[in-house]
Amino acid sequence: MADTKVTGAQSTPAFIERLDVFSNKDQGKTVSIVNGTMQLMYYESLLQDSVMATVTFADSGNSIDKKSALEGLPIVGTEKVIFKIKDNNEEQIEFTFYVNKVTPVGDQTTKGLVNLHLVSKEYILNDEVRINKRFDGKASETVKEILTNFLETDKDVTDIEDATELNEIPGQWKPYYTLNWLSKKCAPSDVTPGKTAGFFFYETSKGYHFKSIDTLLSQEKKKSIIYNETPDSRGANIPEGYDMKALTFSKDNRVNVQEKMQAGFQSTRIVLFDPYTCKYEVLNPKATGDDGVEDSLKKGGKELPVLNPEFNRPGENKQFSRTTYIVKDTGTLPSGTSQQQIEKSKDPNFRPELITNQAIMRYNQLYASEIEITIPGDFSLHAGDALYFDAPSAQEDTKNDDIDRQIGGLYIISALCHLVNAEGTYTKLNLVRDSFGRTGKAREGKNESGKPATPTQTPGVQNPYQRTVSRLATDTTTAF
User: Fold this and answer.
1) Which CATH topology does 8-120 take?
2) Which residues, in sequence order, are CB contacts of 78 under 8 Å at separation 6+?
3) 22 CB contacts (<8 Å, ≥6 apart)?
4) What is the per-residue pLDDT across 267-286, written as a single tens digit (0 to 9) for each?
5) Which of 38, 43, 53, 400 has the most CB atoms at less than 10 Å from its CB?
């Protein structure tokens, strides 16, 4: 976890180092839109295949060849954009985007406003590529091959988690569709089969990622954030053990009981038929209860949502809110020589009883609790990172400094947006987790009680008590 604190003073406008747009017709012809940029927004998300950005700039009549950039370059779509921005803590994002959409906002005789929607190169290539190959072995290796050989990316693909084996022939599918389809078919290779499943495929400015839900929830926190209504005073009032204070905070309990039950977030049923043996089987995997798997899951909080036991229905295969029907593919696509394929003719290619409904439950559980915070711009954070968050407990005592033990604890960044404009630099974070109840500490070895500790003193900055003492010491007026 970083030792450098991020303070409210660092929400001043950040430095846009480079925004160069390259012509499609003449690659040597470029125009910089840095000086005309009025607003820049950068996006990452677990549910988004590509990094995206939007740039709004004033397009003057002398941007290039005494014409506007829109006309003189011209900008029509798919232009390469070299993008480089730096926050006030010297953290930077450098990325090569491509123009996906051009939207003129307003036009005058000498200038106009233009909004550019920017995406990664692979996002555009995805519509031109079809998967026409058989894949054998671990799904994680299939992910790497699709990225490197079909999308031909030169980005980092090392953060691909080891996953279960799956032989498959995509039916002329697009790469992104195939990668997201694989995400739902995978379980971590280092966990007991049948306990958990579900991966996310997503992109950040650091490269591509293929990570299981449980791995995301078991990682070390990158930073600790606290929210309260006391100004941070350039770091003097940031409690010990925390890296920054949130500027805004809102919470949302995402457990709409009917919607979650229909999605199957805690109890499901799967009906299986094996055409090879004509075996019909009904299973009832659960996340909670005596026969559930909650204790084996990696959770952000103490426990999954506890529902009223009045709605429990005892008995085999009676308590479920969603049913999945699967025809098993026993003996399909065996790998190896002809003899090896004959020997594997009775083996299942995919084990839906161990993965399908387990993935359904985990995806829905992850979004059980969501909070949204705004912090001073921090470009070191990325989708998929773990953060520790605390907020004060709402109690009758207005001087109370206890923290909320229901919502506090570890969260995963589901989505983020960096905003840079003339007013400042801010990062908005959507944080999610599968459970409720605070576990762990903001920083190991500190904050043992869970309460905000003595404010950390930033050199050269006085805390409120010191300022009061200093003022009284120099005040020559008569108090009485």
Assistant:
1) Thrombin, subunit H (2.40.10)
2) 24, 98, 99, 100, 124
3) 29, 30, 79, 80, 81, 82
4) 899 999 998 889 999 998 88
5) 53
